[in-house]
Specification:
388 residues; alpha+beta; OB fold (Dihydrolipoamide Acetyltransferase, E2P); Dihydrolipoamide Transferase; Chloramphenicol Acetyltransferase; seven-stranded mixed beta sheet; four-stranded antiparallel beta sheet; 18 strands; 29% helix
Length: 388
């Protein structure tokens, strides 16, 4: 992301906020994103108005921390007035007067009151088409009677969003291939034990509760990363920075075109039912444009799968500043050698795209081997305790 548009504030000056609370909604090239606050405090001043297009890193609001008065903050800001539309360095002792980071351009610095967007008038056909394209119909402009959203309005909005997303993806992937020395590895893994375990568990569950093979694959990756943490983190300022946790960015294709990889947080601590639920919920919210800002920034590695498209394997492009990407192809019956001879067995190909600056192929091979071993013990994968 380079820019975004502030759609609405969810707080007003004087409101008390806590870390993780949604304080604003920003429209991006990919979706409308709920912006979370990074600190506890009190809203001192709102600097950007709804409708303002701002570059990433712009100062949107100022908070004051516990023990500070409004006069204290005003005196500190008087010596270095904040400018909406550009980053501002505040004194170290007022670190909680935070930059709320997200896409933005050049708004007025006057405080803005909370705005509640009116309910958009639209036809059922326009609403259905917007859902098919992955667009938030409530945020589109209508040109019908009394501003009603028509089918033509939805169709005209789709190429604009899709084109913007393609530009974002192209910029990120071009940077990745230009800056990151990729290497690639692949491993075929026998999925028979995992498939048998899934079939046994799902036999007693309703259709809505059934566990997904993808949940086992994700859990195996997460646990393997705990043993080989050099693949779980970022390349910044000429060195590797480990991730604070194992947060898997899962690539999700959008109906209107494009790709988003929001983070599933703390995957090693989830059992398979919880991970299945979290995955389904995340995919649903991603395609509905209902993600939080932290879900787009917290991923420590990306996992992609094209198995449902019939692809045998996928070698992905690393999303900077991450240092690795794990890919899964389809689970298919293939000849497999066992102690009893050759038999048909479900097999999945796992691939690794990794940054050679952060490690080498030997460690990458060990990571894939660990994923393989994890998948041979699906019952252990279902535990919330973390096997290493």
């Amino acid at each position: 992301m380079d820019h975004g548009t502030l759609l609405a504030w969810q707080v007003a000056p004087g409101d008390r906020v806590v870390r993780g609370q949604v304080v604003a909604v920003v429209d991006t090239a990919k979706a409308a994103i709920d912006i979370e606050c990074w600190h506890d405090g009190v809203v001192h001043r709102l600097l950007a108005k709804p409708g303002a297009k701002l570059p990433v890193g712009s100062l949107m609001a100022v908070l004051r921390v516990e023990g500070e008065t409004a006069a204290d903050v005003d005196r500190q800001l008087a010596s270095q007035p904040p400018t909406a539309g550009g980053p501002v360095a505040l004194p170290a002792e007022t670190a909680a007067q935070t930059v709320i980071r997200q896409d933005q351009d050049s708004p007025s610095a006057e405080p803005a009151a909370p705005v509640s967007a009116p309910r958009q008038r639209m036809s059922p056909l326009a609403r259905r088409r917007a859902q098919e394209l992955g667009l938030d119909a409530g945020r589109l402009s209508g040109r019908g009677p009394q501003g009603a959203l028509t089918l033509a309005d939805v169709e005209s909005a789709a190429p604009t969003r899709a084109q913007a997303m393609r530009q974002v993806i192209a910029a990120a992937m071009s940077r990745s291939k230009r800056e990151i020395p990729h290497y690639y590895l692949a491993e075929d893994i026998d999925f028979a034990r995992a498939a048998a375990w899934l079939a046994d568990r799902n036999r007693t569950l309703s259709v809505a509760q059934r566990l997904l093979p993808a949940a086992l694959l994700l859990k195996a990756v997460a646990l393997a990363l705990r043993r080989y943490p050099e693949f779980n983190g970022f390349w910044r300022d000429g060195g590797f920075v480990p991730g604070a946790g194992v947060h898997l960015g899962v690539a999700v294709a959008l109906r209107g075109g494009g790709l988003v990889a929001p983070a599933l947080r703390d995957v090693p601590g989830l059992d398979i039912p919880a991970l299945t639920h979290a995955l389904l919920d995340m995919v649903k919210r991603t395609r509905a444009g209902a993600l939080r800002s932290s879900e787009l920034t917290d991923a420590t590695i990306t996992v992609t799968s094209l198995g449902d498209q019939g692809v045998a394997s996928v070698f992905g492009v690393i999303y900077p500043p991450q240092v690795a990407l794990v890919g899964f192809g389809r689970i298919s019956e293939r000849p497999w050698v066992t102690p009893d001879g050759v038999q048909a067995s479900p097999v999945v190909t796992v691939t690794l795209s990794a940054d050679h600056r952060a490690g080498d192929g030997h460690r990458g091979a060990l990571l894939l081997a660990e994923i393989r071993e994890q998948l041979q013990d699906p019952q252990a994968l279902d535990r919330t305790g973390n096997r290493t």
